[in-house]
Specification:
This protein is about 25% helix and about 25% strand. The chain is α+β, with helices and mostly antiparallel strands. The chain folds into two domains: about 100 residues, no CATH class; about 150 residues, Alpha-Beta Plaits (2-Layer Sandwich). Keywords: Ligase.
């Protein structure tokens, strides 16, 4: 029998709680839901609120079927809010919003990675943050990503822009920058310019083009996730990897000190202590007073 749980007055059917989703660690679906409810929710929800969500679903764990979806799945409760996100192939398309703990837990019960746009639902295509996805091409690793992140941090600071890091939860690193609302195409163009500058400054380390043949041993500075249609793994989301890795905020001291891949790998079980120690390291992204104009914008 599927247990019914009440979350802030909403009744949720939470299924298959004993199912092992991460065989490498024995992590069950119940433990995944506990992570979101007890550890991540308070810090995570401000980064999800008002941002239409895309889901990478992996209901049988990372080794099973995985599929990406933007549309609200069949059976979405009527109390889960959605927002219009028109697409060329579906002008009436809508996407889920996770505005509160019940909607977060409903989505987590589907077993998903949470991915968000860089804009909010009341201003589609007008970004309030910029993202750089630093993706290492083997044998490069997150260590090389950290070196690139430090260069980008200093370059952004020269334009009076603050930047904040988080692990991707996979191989690389994400840098996020709070902005005054700016058209996504302008943010993309600016981010591309900085990616090209990084390649010029660090030619042995950086590539700004996605071409696979160019990427071995280098860090691909992916600026394209600033495009209005693109989404990026949300802060604190679990990833569909061998272990329950988290897209975890990190300090600049940790980035500077990174000497091996494992230095910046954080699992669900690590996050309660990190949040207790640091709070939400990405809180400035949700503070309008921290936003700055895009140079030349």
């Amino acid at each position: 029998m599927t247990p019914i749980t009440e979350v802030e007055g909403r009744r949720l059917a939470l299924s298959n709680l004993d199912k092992v989703l991460y065989p490498a660690t024995g992590t069950t679906k119940g433990e995944v839901l506990h992570y979101y409810a007890a550890t991540a929710a308070e810090a995570m929800l401000p980064h999800l609120r008002d941002r239409p969500l895309s889901f990478l679903r992996y209901p049988d764990g990372p080794e099973g079927l995985r599929f990406f979806t933007k549309n609200p799945p069949p059976g979405t409760p009527d109390w889960v809010r959605t927002a219009p996100v028109p697409r060329s192939d579906d002008p009436g398309a809508r996407q889920v919003l996770a505005q509160d703990l019940p909607s977060l837990m409903w989505a987590a019960n589907l077993v998903v990675e949470f991915h968000t746009h860089q804009w909010r639902q009341d201003s589609p295509g007008v970004a309030d943050r910029m993202v750089f996805d630093l993706d290492p091409g083997p044998p490069a690793s997150v260590v090389e990503c950290c070196a690139v992140a430090l260069w980008l941090r200093d370059r952004l600071a020269a334009d009076e822009l603050s930047s904040y890091g988080k692990t991707s939860g996979s191989k690389g690193l994400h840098l996020l920058v709070p902005l005054e609302p700016t058209p996504s195409e302008d943010v993309t163009a600016f981010a591309k310019r900085l990616a090209m500058e990084a390649q010029d400054a660090l030619p042995e380390l950086v590539v700004h083009r996605m071409t696979r043949a160019l990427r071995p041993g280098k860090v691909f500075v992916d600026f394209s996730q600033n495009a209005a249609a693109k989404t990026t793994a949300a802060p604190y989301t679990l990833r569909a990897k061998e272990s329950p890795t988290v897209s975890a905020p990190v300090t600049w001291d940790e980035i500077e000190a990174c000497g091996k891949q494992d230095d910046l790998v954080f699992l669900a079980g690590d996050m309660a202590a990190r949040l207790e120690r640091y709070g939400d390291l990405l809180a400035p992204l949700t503070d309008p007073d921290q936003a700055r104009p895009l140079p030349g914008g």
